[in-house]
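Nuclear transport factor 2 family protein
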Amino acid sequence: MTREDYDRYVAAFNARDYDTVFDFYADNPRMAFFGIEITTREQLKAFYGFLHSYVTETVTVERFAGSDELTAVEGIVRIEAFADLTREVLDANGMEQFFPIAKGQVQQMRQYIHYHLENGKIASVGCALVP
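Tokens:
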């Protein structure tokens, strides 16, 4: 995956274009992060559709490294709530490990994201937060 490819991927993500985002993935991908596992287009749309009904999430890439087998990104994920996302709502949606956020609040997190590639498509994703 080239930097230009990744920039198109992030632009689609930031625009909430989940079908275009999923088009970057191989058949049967595995996205695992913070206790969430996504393996289908429908799961991706359900997870982000729910989350983004409460917050605006934007990814800003600061560092990028790519090869035929791996893309590694360091960036800032900015979450801004436009509606209260409470502990109760998170828990009811299987997101106990996520933090509540009130309308108007902003959270910024530095993340390292690794994308394992197969035939130019994303086969799996893992990420870690940096304190």
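The chain is about 25% helix and 45% strand.
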